[in-house]
Write a structure and sequence with these properties.
Blueprint lengths: L1 H35 L3 H41 L8 H40 L2 H7 L4 H39 L4 H10 L3 H27 L4 H31 L2
Length: 261
């Protein structure tokens, strides 16, 4: 029995120590980012470049996924509709589903795969090839050169992309629902306005902002913590995407509980 207890304690202890090590490394990276904010001449031009790369590079895939999400929502609404429900309710279902959930969450998950994987791979490769160590040797802050531009660009651009995704999802749902239900434009607009609350738009932006912070910081942390050469880069990239996706779903639940009740 004693040997079994010791065997059980060892993996638990290793897991706890590993989690504490992650917390310590992440806290140190955030501290370095806070110190490097004063070097705005370094990170500002790099932030603009990263923001352009995120916005232009991700716009097509974000709009494509949002368009299909809105259309599928509308088609499923038509499938589940019954004759006892007014047709204008379809507009409410499409708009609220896209604004409150599908737009920000799908955009966050897409960008977790695209941006998160890219950042983790870039920084991980720089870590294993000692480029980050070279910056530190020259007295330059890796946070101001590498981390802050990526984090700020993601925080700025992900909410903007979410707005485009919301509009695209609503328009595609508007067009798709008219193919399965006798809903006029006036019915759709009326239904969208009946249950609309101004806070819904703010809620979507708040969620996308939180997702942007999560995606960029988690992926940069995994990239900075890369070890063991090319194999480590692959592990960091996978870990960044998985951790970002799980954190997005967790934040989605927490924010819905805090802000919608």
């Amino acid at each position: 029995m004693t040997a079994t207890a010791l065997d059980f304690r060892r993996p638990v202890g290793r897991a706890v120590l590993g989690a504490l090590a992650h917390v310590g490394r992440l806290s140190f990276m955030l501290y370095e980012m806070a110190r490097a904010l004063l070097e705005w001449r370094v990170w500002l031009p790099r932030t603009l470049t990263e923001a352009w790369s995120i916005g232009v590079g991700s716009l097509f895939i974000v709009l494509l996924v949002a368009g299909f999400a809105g259309a599928v929502t509308a088609l499923q609404t038509g499938y589940q509709f019954t004759g006892g429900i007014p047709y204008y309710v379809a507009g409410s279902l499409v708009v609220e589903s896209v604004i409150l959930e599908l737009g920000p969450v799908l955009t966050g998950l897409i960008l977790a795969g695209r941006i998160g994987a890219r950042y983790a791979a870039e920084l991980g490769t720089m870590r294993v090839t000692e480029q980050i160590d070279a910056l530190e040797t020259l007295g330059r802050s890796p946070a101001s050169h590498l981390v802050i531009p990526r984090v700020l660009a993601g925080i700025v651009m992900i909410p903007i992309l979410t707005v485009f995704a919301n509009v695209t999802g609503i328009v595609s749902g508007w067009l798709a629902v008219q193919q399965v239900l006798p809903v006029t434009d006036a019915d759709f607009i009326y239904g969208a306005r009946v249950f609309w609350r101004p806070f819904d738009a703010w809620y979507s932006i708040i969620k996308s902002f939180a997702f942007g912070v999560c995606i960029t910081i988690v992926s940069c942390y995994f990239g900075f913590s890369t070890e063991q050469g090319a194999e480590g880069v692959g592990k960091s990239t996978t870990g960044a995407v998985v951790a970002s996706s799980v954190m997005i779903l967790l934040l989605d639940t927490i924010l819905a509980r805090l802000l919608l009740h």
